[in-house]
Specification:
This protein has about 160 residues and is α+β, with helices and mostly antiparallel strands. The chain folds into two domains: about 1-55, no CATH class; about 70-155, Orthogonal Bundle (434 Repressor (Amino-terminal Domain)), CATH 1.10.260. It contains six helices and four strands; from the N terminus they run E-E-E-H-H-H-H-E-H-H. It is rod-shaped. It binds zinc ion (ZN). Zinc ion binds near residues 6, 8 and 30.
Length: about 160
């Protein structure tokens, strides 16, 4: 017959042990995982060093809200910067090696560009289209007048 703990073949007489309140028939090697009935003491199989499953604990890193988010006016800023240079959407698309249709969608605010596209546009126009979430909170807490798009562009260039 098989040992109910390790699953191995029991040679000779199985040993009855109490494991977490139930009787198991085990081999000689596994009898230490429990207590023989009569000598029963609270004993958990989980406490056995050889049967212990080590569950990796997740590192408790305090979550800091410094994630960058694209600013809500990204589409207007991109459009304005493009027009300032006198470029067509096609030209901008070529400059950053993206499709014209993508530029159109970005400028209409239909899609949020991928981070890699954002970076390319930022570098091209020397602007910042992302902001840290924290910054937004601080700014709104001050209760200042909502900056105009021009103001934002100036702030971001610093
Ligand atoms: Zn066993």
């Amino acid at each position: 017959m098989q040992c109910e703990v390790c699953g191995g073949e029991i040679r000779g007489k199985p040993v009855e042990i109490m494991v977490e309140g139930s009787i198991m028939k085990v081999c000689q090697r596994c009898k230490r995982f429990g207590n023989e009935p009569g000598k029963w003491k609270p004993f958990s199989l989980k406490q056995s060093p050889e049967k212990r499953v080590i569950i990796p604990k997740k590192k408790r890193v305090p979550k800091i809200e410094v994630e960058e988010e694209i600013i809500p006016e990204y589409n207007e800023i991109i459009k304005r910067e493009r027009e300032r240079k006198g470029w067509t959407q096609e030209k901008l698309a070529k400059k950053i090696s993206e499709k014209v249709s993508l530029i159109g969608k970005i400028e209409r605010g239909e899609i949020v560009p991928e981070p890699r596209v954002i970076r390319k546009i930022e570098q091209l126009f020397n602007i910042k289209l992302t902001e840290k979430v924290q910054d937004v909170e601080i700014r709104s807490r001050k209760g200042e007048i909502t900056p105009t798009l021009g103001d934002i562009a100036v702030i971001k260039r610093k």
